[in-house]
Amino acid sequence: MKLETEKIVTLSDRETTEELQKYLSTLTRDEVNEIILLSSAYIFSLLGENSTSTEGSNRRLLVYQHCIPLCESGDLQAEVAADIIGLLMLETHALPGSCLAQLATLFLEAIKGGKIGNGKSLELFPTVITALSACETLSYGKGELSGEEYKKQLINSLCSSRWDPQCVIHLTTMFRDVPLSTEELRFLIEKILRMLTKLDLQEVPPLVYQLLLLSAKGCKKQILDGIISYFKEQDDCLEEERKKGNSMDLEVQSMPQDELRHVEGTTVIHIVFALRLDHELGREFLKSFKTSYGDLCPFSIALLLSVARIQRYEEQVFDILKGAIIKNFKDEQLLQGSDLVKTLIQDCSSVAQMILETVKNSMFGWDHVTQGLVQLGFSLLDGFGPKPGPFGKTAEDCGTVARTPAQQACQLGRQVLLQGFKMHEPIRGEIMEQVLNRLVAKTASPVSHYLELFSDIVNSAPMIVLESSSKVTETFDHLSYLPLATVQGLLKALQPLLKVSMTLKDALILVLRKAMFSSQLDGRKSAVTGFLLLLKNFKVLGSLASSQCSQAVTASQVQVDVHSRYNAAANEAFCLEILSSLRRCLSQQADVRLILYEGFYDVLRRNSQLSSSIMQTLLSQLKRYYEPEEDLLPPVKLEPCITAIGDQVYLQEPLGHLLSCTVHCLLWLQKLHQSASSNADDSDNEGEEGGYQSELQTIFDSMTGRMIKSEMEDFELDKSAEFSMVSSVGVKNNIYTVLVMGLYEVLLEYNFIDANYSKNRFEEVVELFSRYNKLSEILKEKAGKGRVLSHKTPRSLLSMGFISTLLTLLFRDSTQTRQEALSVLRSNGEFVRYAVSVAVQKIQQLEETGHTDGPDGQNTEKTFQFLCDMTSVLMWRYTNIPSMVEDAGKKEKRSSLSLLCLEGLLRIFTTCQQRCPQRMTQTWRWTSSVTLPSST
Fold it and tell me: Where is the FANCI solenoid 1 cap domain (predicted)?
C-alpha cells in the first residue's frame, strides 16, 4: 500500500491530472479507505482529482464519508483532525449538488443517531449547507427543489429531530456560521432552549455562552427570556422539593443547591459580559423588564444587580427594581384589602421575598451581585425613608409597623443591607461607612431608618462592628452638631459595644465632656443624653438585676459581665464621675435640665446603687426653690425659675419636672426598701437613705398643705392679668401658670399614691385638683379671646401608669373597703373628666411619638400593658353608661365623657395597630377567652 500512496502523491504533483484520474479509477473502495488513514497529504491528492465523472465525484464523496466519522471518533490528534476538516472545507464547493445532498444527509443521520462525539466535523456542516443553498436544483423525493428551498427543508428536519444532549453545544456553535432566516432562527432557538432541561447543570453555562453569541443573528429577547425562564423553573423545583422534604421529614433533592447556585453565578457573568459588548442586547434586556415586572425571580434580580455595575445601565436597573418593588407592594395591599379582589386574582408573587432570596443565594460566591445589593439597599432607604414634614415634624414615623408601600420598601432596604452585612465580609466596611455618613450628613432629614439599620447591625454582629470601630469613633466627633434624636438613637444602638470596648467608651466620654461645654444647645443636650445612657448601662455591683426593673434600652445579643473586667469600685467611681459632670447641667437651660430630670428615674431603676447620689442631687436642687418657712405662702419660689434676655422672658427651671422626678424616684425607692426590708445587707445604708427620704416626705407634705392654702395672688397671678404670648408680661404669667399647674399635678399623684385609700387624703387630692382646674380654665378662657391662638393645653405631668390605675379605680374597682374613699373622687365629675382627658392626651402622645413623658414612658412592655388596662376600663365605661344620661355634657360646648372614652379607644386601637399588631392579636385572643365583669 505504501507504493500506491507514493504513486498517488507523485501523480498529483504533475501539471495535469489525467494520469492521476486514470490511476485512481483502478483503486477499489477498500484501498481508498486505507490510503485516507495514512496521511492528510494523500487526502489532498484524492481531493485534487478534478474529474467530472461520476466515479471521480464518488471517490471524493467517499473521502468525505470516511473522514467525517474519523474526525468524530477521537482517534486522531486534534491538529490532524483540524487539518483534515480544513482540507475538506476547501474542496466542498467543488462537489456536485448530489454529493452535497448526501453529505448533508450523512450529518443529519449522525445527529439523529447521537453519533456526534467531539463535534469537530460539525465545523464542516455550515460549509455544506452554504454550498447546497447555492445550487440551482437538487433532487428531492420524486421532484426537484432549488438549493435555498432544500436548505430550508434540511434545517427544518434537523431542528425537528431528536438531539443527543451531548451534541447540543456543538450544534449551537455550528449554527452560528449557518445563514438563517428570522423564522428559522426562532425555530432553532426554541429547540435549543427546550434542550436546556435535558443537559447536566455543568453544561448549561457553555450553552448559554453559545446562545449569547448566536444572539448576534437576532431573537435577542427570546434568548434572554428563555435563559431566565429556565433558571426560574429550576428555582421553583428546588423550592418544591424543599417543601416536600420538610413536610415528609425527608431529604428529597434532584439537584444540589450549591451546584445550581454556582451555575447561576457563572451564567450571570456570561450574560453581563455579553451585554457589555452588545449594546443592542443590553437595551433589549432592560426593555423586557420595563414592560413586565411580574417576570422577576431571584435569578433575574441577581442578573439585574450585576448589570447595574455597567455604568450606562445603572440608573435604569435601579429604576426598574424600585418600580417593581413599589408596584408589588401596592398589589399586595390591594389584594389584602379586598375579598372581592382575592376571589378574582391569585396571590401575586412577592418581589421582596425574591430579593431576600437573592441575598441568600449570593453567599455562593456571587461577588458580582453584592455591590448591587448594597446600592439597592441604600437606594430603597434613601428613596422611601420617612420624609421631613411641616415645622420639622417627621411625615412618617419609622418606628411604626410598615404599612404603606413606601414604608415596606424602606424596611426591605434595611433587611437587604443587614443580611448582606452578615454574609459578605468585603462589603461590611462600605455598609458601615455609608450608614454613619448618612447619620452625620442628613441633619435636616429624618434618619430613624438608618438608626434602626445601625442598631440591627450592632445587635446581630457586634464583634464584627468592633472591627470598624475607627469609623464609629470618627462619628463621635460630630455628636455636638447632630440633632438630639440622632444622638439618642446612635448612642442607644452603641450600648452593647461600649460594654466590651474600653477604647470606644473612652473616646465617647472624651467627646461628651467636650460637648458639655459646647456653645450649641443641642451639643449640651447630646452630652446629657450620652451620659445618662452610660449610667443606665454601666451597672454598679449590687444594683438590681435588669430582669427586676424596667429596661429603657433593649437587651443586646452581647451578654457580658462588666464586673469580670472592671471591679465594682472602678465601675462605681466611673458612674460617680459621670454624675459629677451631670450636676453641671443644673445651671444650664431648661431644655438641658429637662432631659436630666426625664432620665434620672430610669438611671435609678437600672443602677439602684446610685440612689444616694441621685437623691441628694435632686434634693439639693429642689431646696433652691423650696420655701422652708411653714408660714410662708406659696411654698416655692417662682422668680428663680425664669430668666430674661433683653425683653424676652424664658423658662430657666422646669420646676414641675424636677418635682415629678424627685417624687417618682422617692416612691420607687420606698417600694424597693419595703420589698427588701427583710434583707440585712440594706441596713448599712438605712441611716443615710432614711435621712433624705424623711426630709423629702416632709417637704412634700408641707408643699401639699400650703399649695392647697395658696391662692392665685400668692403666685403673682390674677385672672384679669395679661396672658398674651406677644408681651414679656404675658409670657411670664403663662410660665408661672404652667409651673404651678405642674406642681399641683405632681402633688396630686404623690398624695393619691401615699394616701392608702384614706378619705381625708383623697379630699386633699380633690382640693389640689380644684386649684389646678381653676388655673386651667383661666388659660383656656384667655386663649379663646385672642385672634391668634396664644396657648396650647400644657402636657400633663401625671404618669401613664398612674392614669391607668386611676381610671381602673374610678370605674371598675369594687373593693368594699375602698368605696368610701373612692366616692370622694367619683362624685367630682370634673375630676373624672380630667382623668379621662389626661388618658386621651397620653395615648395621643404614644400614638404620635411611640413614647410618653414620665416614668416607664419609654418602656414598650409597660406602656402596652397600660394601654390594655385602659382599654378594658374605657370600653366598660362607654358600653355601660349611655351618653344620653350625661346632662352636663349637653349644657356645655364640649365632648361628653362617653365620647372622650370613645376617642381614647380609637387612639388605642390605632396605636396598637401601627406599633404592635402582633401583640394586639395575642391580647385579643386572650381577652376573648376571658369574661370581664359587667359592672363594679
Answer: 5-47
DSSP character at residue 178: S
The torsion region of residue 349 among left (phi > 0), alpha (psi -120 to 50) and beta comes to: beta
Contacts of 172 (CB under 8 A, 6+ apart): 192, 207, 210, 211, 214
Among 423, 419, 429, 484, smallest CA distance to 451 is for 484
Within 13 Å and on the Cβ side, how many CA atoms surround 552? 29
Q: What is the mean pLDDT of residues 919-931?
A: 51
Cell numbers 416607664 correspond to what residue?
856
Q: What is the dihedral of CA 711, 714, 719, 721, to 10 degrees?
A: 180
Closest CA to 589 of 518, 659, 651: 651
Domain boundary among 522, 538, 554: 538
**CB proximity list for 475: less than 8 A, separation 6 or greater:** 436, 439, 440, 490
Q: Which residue has the cell 459629677?
A: 580
Q: Other C-beta atoms within 10 Å of 893: how many?
A: 5
Q: Report the distance separating Cα 690 and Cα 249, nearest Å.
A: 65
Per the CB < 8 A criterion, the answer to whether 765 and 712 are in contact is no
The rounded distance, in Å, linking the Cα atoms of 764 and 776 is: 18
CA 784 to chain centre: 47
Residue found under cell 430613624: 448
Neighbours of 855 (CB within 10 A): 25
Cα distance between residue 532 and residue 592, in whole Å: 12
User: What is each CA distance from 364 to 206, 258, 262, 264, 369, in whole angstroms?
Assistant: 19, 7, 6, 10, 11
Decide if 90 is inside a domain.
Answer: no
Q: Looking at the 3D structure of the chain, how many domains does it have?
A: 2
Domain end residue (candidates: 506, 538, 570) = 538
Q: What is the DSSP string of 314-379?
A: HHHHHHHHHHHHHHHHHHHHHHHT-HHHHHHSPPPP-HHHHHHHHHHHTTTT-HHHHHHHHHHHHH
CA end-to-end span of the chain: 122
Q: Residue 51 has what pLDDT?
A: 47
Sign of the dihedral through C-alpha 484, 487, 490, 494: negative
Maximum Cα interatomic distance, the chain, rounded to a whole number of Å = 148
Q: How far is CA 337 from CA 330, 342, 403, 604, 758, in A?
A: 10, 9, 12, 47, 53
Q: Give the CB-side neighbour count of residue 253, counting CA atoms within 13 A.
A: 12
Residue 488 lies in a domain: yes
How far apart CA 391 and CA 781 sit, in angstroms, is 27
pLDDT of residue 683 exceeding 70, the answer is no
**Where are the strands (E) in 510-578, listed by range?**
none
Phi, psi of 643 (to 5 degrees): -145, 155
Whole-number Å distance between alpha carbons of 484 and 282: 47
Task: Check residue 792 and give left, alpha or beta (phi > 0: left; psi -120 to 50: alpha).
Answer: beta
pLDDT in tens, 865-919: 999 999 999 999 988 876 666 654 455 566 788 889 999 999 999 888 887 777 7
Determine the structural domain holding residue 516 and report its residue range: 425-440+448-538
Whether residue 21 is predicted with pLDDT greater than 60 in this model: the reply is no
The Cα–Cα gap between 370 and 384 comes to 21
User: Do residues 268 and 303 lie in contact, with contact meaning Cβ atoms separated by under 8 Å?
Assistant: yes
Question: How far apart (Å, rounded) are the C-alpha atoms in residues 173 and 208?
Answer: 11
C-alpha cell at 132: 447546497
Bond prior to 794 in cis (omega within 30° of 0): no
Q: Judge contact between 733 and 718, C-beta under 8 A.
A: no
333 is a domain residue: no
Percent of the chain's residues with pLDDT above 70: 78
The residue written with cell numbers 494523500 in the block is 42
